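User: I'm curious what two different proteins look like when written out as structure tokens. Can you demonstrate?

Assistant: Sure. I'll show them one after the other, since each token string lines up with its own sequence. Here's the first protein:
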Amino acid sequence: MSSPEAPSDKPKADAHKASVAVADDASSYVGTPAVGTSKAARAAGVASIGPDNSQVNARRRRLVWCAVTGFLGAWFIAFLRFFLPRTLFEPPTVFKIGYPSDYALGVDTKWQQKYRIWVDRTPDRVFVIYARCTHLGCTPDWKASENKFKCPCHGSGYDSEGVNFEGPAPRPMDRAHVELAPDGQIVVDTSRLFQWPKGQPSHFSDLGSFLQV
């Protein structure tokens, strides 16, 4: 029969168990878990996983990325535009307007919007009036019932050949250079204008200011 454990050995056994428990606890972590760690989340009763990858969340993320991409793209385009030359897109100054036989006697306004000109045909010639008032540069209106051009800005009036007779306009409207192309069409060049300066000789009979018909 074995003898009972000596009373002096029991305190030693209890102390050994306590040290083992402390060591196990120390191997886990000491003190309050760091914020943001999975242990801190478990300690606070918060799930340690991220948001669920549902269809709604995926759609939201896609919308956010589209907005960010669009914003950055707009700024990038603006950045590039800053370094590009600023050009004005204007209609060509040299163009064809058809054949002399396409025009009847009088004023034809079909090219006013596109080229800012009127084609004027008299019994012996065809010429092109540049549709710009010589007062302040407005575009007059052709009043067929009154057989005259009338500027809507300050009331300048011109006859059917563009010669001023009323209002503040100082001189007649200019005429563009015209010539016939090899195919027989009329070629107009609005970069070459013929004028009749106030108090000076007219250039409306110069070569290129009209076509003989």
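Here's a second, unrelated protein for contrast:
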Amino acid sequence: MKINISIIHICLLFLPLVSEAQAVTNQRVYDTIPFIPEHTPQRLAQFAKEPIVTGRVIFLGNSITEMGNWKKATGDTTVVNRGIGGDVTYGVLNRLKDITDRQPSKVFLLIGINDIGKDIPDAVIVSNDLKIVKEIHAKCPQTQIYVESALPVNSTLNNFPQHYDKGEHILALNKLLQENAAAGNYTYVNIFNLFADGDGRLKSEYTYEGLHLKPPAYDIWVAYLRKMGYL
């Protein structure tokens, strides 16, 4: 049987490319750096200046949390805001010591929309959420943890950042967060429905550009937490 030598040569030439392609599929192909990396150290420096007081309620997350005037919305001047604009689940994991050192009574975690914006897989986001919860439980066994659903977005509004137009991932993430509540020993809080219109979009009256919330939305948010007995 004759073998075409030229075909063998071509196959040998392609072998390194095939091997390289296979190796690439095993690498992380998404970015894990927060959207506003210069903002994180500024916020962390601010946090470090605050005295460590235990037993407080902490709201933990990204810009949606940072922009909330939680002291006013809750009527509790001791509430702690640990939101950092642009943050992702990896960022929260890296700054948990500030949370656990304070031995909070409750933690309300809202994180994931920036991960979605960076195309971090839904399963990875949930895995990171579970790591966050596990570490808090391990170091603060008395802390009640509430993991809140990602909020809807509204891409029809002016100035909407288009890399967040991934509504199907928001729904998938929320489903996974709800399904893992028992395994993670946390309370799942569905705030998605509070702000979604009939089409599943963020109601225009509650948002600036289809992503971030206006102040009245935080009052609705807190009222719901109270209604459910979480606050």
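A detail about the second structure: The chain has twelve helices and five strands.
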